Amino acid sequence: MKVTALAGEVPAALASALAARGLDRLHAEALASGGAPVALLLEPLDESEAMALVGGAARAGLDCHTGDGWAVVAGTLARLGGLSRPDPAAPLPERLSLALGRFLRDRQQAPLAWRTARRTIPLDRSCVVGIVNVTPDSFSDGGRHLAPADALAGARRMREAGARVLDVGGESTRPGAARPDEAEELRRVIPVVRALLAEVGLPVSVDTRRSRVAEAALEAGAEIVNDVSGLAADPRMAEVVSAGGAGVVLMHMRGEPQTMDGLAVYGDVACDVAAELAERRDRALAAGIAADRVVLDPGLGFAKAPEHNLALLDRLGGIVALGHPVMVGPSRKRFLGTVTGRPVDGRDAATAAACVAARMRGARLFRVHDVAAAVEALAVADAVLGADGGGA
Ligand code: HH2
Questions:
Q1: pLDDT band per the 50, 70, 90 thresholds, residue 8
Q2: From the CA of 273, how far away is ligand 1's center (Å)?
Q3: Is residue 355 over pLDDT 80?
Q4: Which of 172, 179, 296, 304 to mutate to test ligand 1, by most ligand atoms within 8 A of the CB atom?
Q5: What is the arithmetic mean of pLDDT over 297-310?
Q6: In sequence order, which residues have a C-beta less than 8 Å from that of residue 135 and are 6 or more positions away?
Q7: Is the CB of residue 92 below 6 angstroms from any atom belonging to ligand 1?
């Protein structure tokens, strides 16, 4: 049974109000976290599960709406906890109580750090990931960093501007892009990974769908694999990530870059993407990848129409509730052009704004071309979120 959070909120206001009235901060936050609003979609459900849920929700003081094979439960986190606790007088069917228990456990994990092959990256403040595309045809910066020396110069500027990770990619994944063969991708990526590690000193992530490229990059000292297919494109990828102890970004996409635009059909995009990402995460964990190595990414622009990207940013809480740090990559993408009317090289302010919107909804990692603009905007967002002492 799938349990999908429809939205997520941070009850910072409640914590502050309680703390201002004399409760110690920790106590105030613990109480306030129970007041967080939750809305969950559960499906598929059989009739007896739906009946049990309606009764249990009523006793726990939750709203419950059911239809053919599904239910939506809404209320506060504390009341949801009440529903999931064993009640000998009216026990919930096991499948239902397990699914609710797992949702509550994931939601509580609230990771504030990301383990990679070489270190733990703290995420108590926003982490900006600088894009180093060594491709001749990327949609916004194709050809700019093709020579290792150019990639290095760009990466040094990104470090000075406050990037904390560099993401190196040798394949353009823009809609309809032609794919380089493996030898060509290796030839583009590996020398740049080596040069960045020797000269720039930031953690390096490799943006690839090929296990051989990931493996060679990890051997060269990279510590994160950013796979836009969510480990689906190459059957060996999960094993390579697991064996290398690498951090991994599981991004949501449907189909291939060549076909994805035709697959941008959703019933409810935020729900569908969260549920599909949860499946990818479950597969990664089953393949032996440790949970604290996993970052999730909604895949802005990948099998998404402009309105889907905006809805995903607004309802990122459903992905955050899966219990892993969340990355977003809005940088210079087409949906920002749709909103602002700006061409691709005029979208850095819009990118920074999209990062801030995502930060307010719980994202922690931001993959961008213009590091300086994003770092500055996110410093303000971090300060606002931390302003009442609670953070988010
Ligand atoms: N977007 C792109 C590539 N990789 N990885 C993650 N995790 N999230 C993203 O949103 C994402 C990504 C596409 O952007 P870009 O690298 O600028 O272009 P191209 O694929 O044409 O090289």
A1: low
A2: 17
A3: yes
A4: 172
A5: 96
A6: 142, 143, 146, 169, 170, 171, 172, 180, 188
A7: no
Give the ligand 1 atom nearest the CA of 300: 10
Residue 26, H or E segment: helix 25-34
User: At residue 170, does pLDDT exceed 50?
Assistant: yes
Which atom of ligand 1 sits closest to the CA of residue 177?
21
- Read off φ and ψ for residue 328, nearest 5 degrees: -130, 150
pLDDT (tens digit per residue) in 86-142: 878 888 898 999 999 888 888 876 678 999 999 999 999 999 999 999 987 666 666
Q: What is the dihedral of CA 378, 322, 173, 337, to 10 degrees?
A: -50
CA pair distance 333, 340, nearest whole angstrom: 11
For the annotated catalytic residues, the residue numbers are 333, 367
Cβ of 44: how many Cβ atoms within 10 Å? 11
Ligand 1: distance of its center to the CA of 18 in Å? 43
Q: Is 131 in the pocket of ligand 1 (CB under 6 A)?
A: yes
Spatial distance between the Cα atoms of 295 and 105, rounded to a whole number of angstroms = 17
Q: What is the pLDDT of residue 390?
A: 46
Beta bridge partners of 72: 41, 65
Using CA atoms, how far residue 85 sits from 9, 57, 71, 93, in Å, is: 22, 12, 19, 12
Q: Which ligand 1 atom is at minimum distance from the Cα of 138?
A: 21
AA letter at 55: G
Atom of ligand 1 nearest to the CA of 332: 17
Q: What mean pLDDT is predicted for residues 242-252?
A: 98
Whether 199 contacts 159, CB under 8 Å: no
pLDDT attached to residue 36: 84
Cβ atoms of residues 270 and 318 within 8 Å: yes
129, 174, 206, 344, best to mutate for ligand 1 pocket (most atoms within 8 Å of CB) = 174
Residue 159 near residue 200 (C-beta atoms within 8 A): yes
* Ligand 1 midpoint to CA 373 (Å): 18
Q: What is the dihedral of CA 34, 35, 41, 47, to 10 degrees?
A: 70
Measured CA to CA, the distance from residue 89 to residue 91 in angstroms comes to: 6
Q: What is the pLDDT of residues 204-239, one digit of tens each?
A: 999 999 999 999 999 999 999 999 999 999 999 999
